[in-house]
Amino acid sequence: MQARENKIQVSEKLSLPTMGCGTWAWGNKLLWDYDESKDQQLQEVFNFCVDHGVTLFDTGDSYGTGKLKGRSETLLGQFSQQYQGKEKDNICIATKLAAYPWRLTRQSIVAACRASAHRLGKPVDLVQMHWPTANYAPWQENALLEGLADLYEQGEVKGVGLSNYGPKRLKEVYQKFAQRGVPIYTLQVQYSLLSTYPIKELGLKALCDELGIRLIAYSPLTLGLLTGKYGNGVFPKGIRGLLFRYLLPGIQPVLKTLETIANTRNKTFSQIALNWCICKGTIPIPGAKNMKQAQQNIGALGWRLSDSEVAELDQASNKVTRPMVQNIFQTR
Ligand SMILES: NC(=O)c1ccc[n+]([C@@H]2O[C@H](COP(=O)([O-])OP(=O)(O)OC[C@H]3O[C@@H](n4cnc5c(N)ncnc54)[C@H](OP(=O)(O)O)[C@@H]3O)[C@@H](O)[C@H]2O)c1
After folding, report:
1. Whose CA is nearest to atom 14 of ligand 1?
2. Domain coverage including residue 308
3. Using one digit for the tens of pLDDT, what is the confidence trace for 261-286?
4. In a domain, 149, yes or no
5. Is residue 186 classed as helix, strand or coil in its secondary structure?
6. Which of 33, 101, 163, 213 could cross-link with 188 by S-S, CB 3.0 to 4.6 Å?
7. Is 54:17 a contact under the CB 8 Å cutoff?
8. 288 CA to middle of ligand 1, Å?
9. Is 258's C-beta closer than 6 angstroms to any atom of ligand 1?
10. Termini Cα distance of the chain
């Protein structure tokens, strides 16, 4: 893998930027309060990101359910077709296929990817297994992974990635795919100042480096909590509000350190939190719902925290007494 102009060339056909954009909120009502009136601003976010080299968009076939089935993919398809800027050819749409209980065969994963491609109006660039079933239905997973490798072998995708896999399962899948000559380009895990478990406890960064896999940090702002805008009676509606009320008393060391460094550097909390992910060698994919958020998050690029600032943030993160809850599907 070579770094070229802030892009990591993972293969002849696929390059990844220093930071991407998450699109879970682009079609999800329950957690993120999406409605169609937001589509215009989401398209502006898309165009702005691509123009600024943030060319990786993470989505999933479960982002948008019921009547909004696959809405995030549909929007990304429309936006990428309408985008005419100079970065057009670098756009990478990375979708995640859900390991739904009714997906039992390798063909079901191939069909799921084709359905995503249909919604996108073009082939999927990077296809990822959304989660392993090892924790609850280990017998299901083998066929799904075979299907993922089939997609690469058949040239239907440019690359394959995994999500929520721990080191043990990652090594097993890596070896299995290697026997078929299928490389794993990316692993996506929940990683932020409040969710250091995947690297600190599971050692996934070192393993990914050894295997030549890029580590993608999802929920790098802990669902918005690390932006510093919540607390003091201000909370989002629903489940996020409940979670943030629970977490806040235990995360003060991180918020205080973010504030100090943000003030010294004239940056925002989110810019510091995202830059910390980049300094840790991951590709953060913050979600952005509007231009203000996208513009702010892009300000995380083009500079680096000093080693001592990273160390201060690490120490603050170690003092957190209520870390972000881990994804139930994350394996060891
Ligand atoms: N593989 C998996 O299992 C998995 C799981 C979760 C997420 N993901 C991926 O990771 C992406 C990012 O994670 P996430 O969306 O869960 O959480 P996140 O990136 O940690 O937080 C995103 C939210 O924070 C708020 N925000 C973002 N930038 C902001 C700014 N500059 N100022 C103020 N508020 C800001 C917005 O929500 P509000 O304005 O409502 O606060 C936004 O939707 C997802 O979109 C998805 O693509 C993958």
Report:
1. 219
2. 2-318
3. 999 999 999 999 999 999 999 999 99
4. yes
5. strand
6. 163
7. yes
8. 6
9. no
10. 26
Whether residue 122 lies inside any domain: the answer is yes
Catalytic residue set: 63
pTM, rounded to two decimals:
0.97
**Closest approach atom of ligand 1 to CA 23:** 45
Residue 73 belongs to domain with CATH number: 3.20.20.100
| CA 19 – ligand 1 centroid, Å | 13
Domain count, the chain: 1
Q: Say if ligand 1 is within 6 A of residue 236 CB.
A: yes
Each residue of 46-59: pLDDT tens digit?
Answer: 999 999 999 999 99
- Which atom of ligand 1 lies at the shortest distance from residue 58's CA? 47
* Domain presence at residue 331: no
Q: Whose CA is nearest to atom 25 of ligand 1?
A: 224
Ligand 1, atom nearest to 128 Cα? 1
Contacts of 85 (CB under 8 A, 6+ apart): 47, 50, 51
**328 occurs within a structural domain:** no
